Amino acid sequence: MSNISKEILRDYVREQNFTSSTDVLNAMKEMFRDVLQETLEAEMDSQLGYDKYDISEKQTPNSRNGYSKKTVKSELGEVELNIPRDRNGEFEPQIIPKYQRNITGIEDKIMALYAAGMTTRDISDQIKNLYDVEVSADMVSNITNRILPIVTEWQNRPLESIYSFVFMDAIHYKVREDKHVVVKAAYVVLGVNMHGEKEGLGIWIGANESSKFWLSVLNDLKNRGVDDVLIFCVDGLNGFKEAIGAVYPFARIQRCIIHQLRASMRYVSYKDRRAFAADLKTIYTAVNEDAALENLLSVKETWESKYPNAIKSWEDNWDDLITSLAFPGYMRKIMYTTNAIESLNSQFRKVTKAKLIFPNDESLMKMLYLATQNVSKKWTRIYPNWDLVINQLNIMFEDVLNKGA
């Protein structure tokens, strides 16, 4: 309408003699129908290669074959159209695809509401209130199911051959399975490519977290083209180190310091936690491994008699806790904790808090995928000092990076 001159528009208004806003709406609806109809006719002209009333340019045995009626829902209400047909049944309208009967954009709005964490029943109520359109909870589910092939394609897409850092964690949900409610783990993998860009590598729904399932996840990454990972940043799951070593033997592992601190604090009484945490901080913020070891011995001397298990957990996992100490501070910030993936998990919790129990794995996967897509739109910046980071990695992992040269 913005391209119609005011004079033409005024003449049209005088001709219609509008007496109410309803008259205006009805006229817009009729004009909308006419524009859609002409667009369909133009699409058929383009398909056949000649205009409806000019067969002199006809160069195809195919021809028009009447119309079929179709009623579609729009922002202006229901509109009845005559959909052109051809004798060969080859015509596929683009403006209104063959099986589409709703052109209000409601499906996109339903997808956005689902991605925000609303239940199918709440979405149904919301659409009814906003657009006065009846959309059942089952229909909402069916609409969101249309992204499942997209999810599958994303989950199986080829990946880059080398990732500088890979963060792995799991978040747990209740899912209905065989008429029972079971706890399942969503295994989440976040990668940082060699350009310093974050990328969600995949989400896998499986049995409660185990090193065996993580091994299958790592094998899947390998099969999708990830030949090498330089540094894995992981939590303290037993068997994690062995699973990584089986698939990526050249990778270094940094155990998440935050997870390690939480594990240690389970053994410490509340009144001692602040002092104990302050002493532990001298270990993971030390200038290098030698200084960290000296500080560990000092902490051990102070606290071992009272909290032997807390100290033992640091000794048992020492090799994987000090990986970051071989690097400068700007790299330690990237790898000493799994915060990068924790922030993604916090978004997952935000959008899934209304769903106490998921009806199936697909329902959970849809919501986590949509949340990942929303979060990834904000991953527009590379890590700070990335030129320095990549120089450090090129030296530290020279053999791995040049093994194919």
Descriptive report:
This protein has about 400 residues and is an alpha/beta fold. The protein has 3 domains: about 1-105, no CATH class; about 105-145; about 160-400. It contains 18 helices and 7 strands. The strands form 2 sheets. Strands 5-4-3-6-7 form a 5-stranded mixed sheet, sandwiched between helices. A hairpin with a 2-residue loop joins strand 3 and strand 4.
Write the layout of secondary structure elements.
Blueprint: H1 6-16, H2 21-48, E1 64-74, E2 77-86, H3 106-115, H4 120-131, H5 137-145, H6 148-155, E3 162-177, E4 180-193, E5 198-206, H7 211-223, E6 228-234, H8 240-247, E7 252-255, H9 257-265, H10 273-284, H11 289-303, H12 308-316, H13 318-321, H14 329-335, H15 339-352, H16 361-376, H17 386-396, H18 398-401
Keywords, please?
405 residues; 5-stranded mixed β-sheet
User: What number of domains?
Assistant: 3
Query: Helicity range of the residues?
Result: 40-55%
Quaternary state of this entry equals: single chain
Count, helices: 18
The coarse silhouette is: elongated
Percent strand equals: 15-25%
- Class derived from helix and strand content: alpha/beta
- H/E order of the elements? HHEEHHHHEEEHEHEHHHHHHHHHH
How much is the radius of gyration in Å?
30 Å
Mean pLDDT: 85
**Low-confidence runs:** none
Biggest sheet: strands, sense, closure?
Answer: 5 strands, mixed
Strand tally: 7
Order of the strands making up the biggest sheet:
5-4-3-6-7
Distance between the termini: 61 Å
Short description:
By secondary structure, the chain is an alpha/beta fold. The protein has helices at residues 6-16, 21-48, 106-115, 120-131, 137-145, 148-155, 211-223, 240-247, 257-265, 273-284, 289-303, 308-316, 318-321, 329-335, 339-352, 361-376, 386-396, 398-401, and strands spanning 64-74, 77-86, 162-177, 180-193, 198-206, 228-234, 252-255.
